[in-house]
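Hey, quick one: can you model this chain's 3D structure?
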Amino acid sequence: MKLLERLAIVIISLAIAVGIIALLSGGLLLGHDNPGLYGSGGQLGVEFRDLGDAALAPGARAPRYDSVPPTSGAHRAAAIGREGTVLNDNQVLTALAAGDVVLMYGTDRPPPQLRALASSIAAPFTPALAASGQAVILARRPAIPGVLGLAWTRMLHVRSSDDPQLRSFTLFWLGQGAKGAAAR
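Sure thing. Here's the predicted structure for all 184 residues.
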């Protein structure tokens, strides 16, 4: 009988200890993410399927992408000559495949905090830097609220250009382009 009482005490003590540890570490509260496009996907952003980075043949139609703007997929190589412009899908995919991070904003000019973020992480934009996959590219995207961060197969939408998730996203994904693009 005393053995059963001791065993019960040990089991109950263990359960209480595990419960207290989980409660104090926030494990019960932090483990239920509800990913979405407005930042709740976490610092790494919402993940999309890798649709590859094949080159489109001349005259071939673009495939149906699984995100808008696309985060991966077949495209025609299209360099970005300057930042602060509206980029087409081919330019976005060329940049992302190389390893660049594209930060899109809906205003006429990039918010000052966004420009400060980009300059604190990467060298000033040049076409050569973008081609090397080490650029943080600021691009206009009319009618989007907040800022849309894009990396290869990843997207993060935040309400404000000073959202700390944007810095984490950019630092993590910069240089992480399509697997096949590095071999070219």
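One thing worth noting: The helical segments are 2-25, 27-30, 89-98, 112-121, 127-132, 164-173.
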